[in-house]
Amino acid sequence: MSKHFEYAAQGVCSSRIILDIDGDTIENMQVINGCNGNLKGISALVKGRKADEVINALEGITCGAKPTSCPDQIARALKSYLAQQ
After folding, report:
1. CATH number, position 53
2. Which tens digit of pLDDT belongs to each residue from 31-56?
3. Domains in the chain: how many in total?
4. Residue 1 has pLDDT above 90, yes or no
């Protein structure tokens, strides 16, 4: 059974990351605000993948001079979810 998890993004254009996760597998992800097409594409790519796999791929990515990015915030959201399990 999947769990619904919401994360408030910080330091990026996106404001919220909404995840539906079954165990450690991402069933669905929606990112509110940000670069619409790119974030829809990332959402499609992470669907069906394990949280740790996505964290390893996205963690530490920056956006311009910012110390974070929307992909990095997705990794942080997943880490936050896993820490609560």
Report:
1. 3.30.390.50
2. 999 999 999 999 999 999 999 999 99
3. 1
4. no
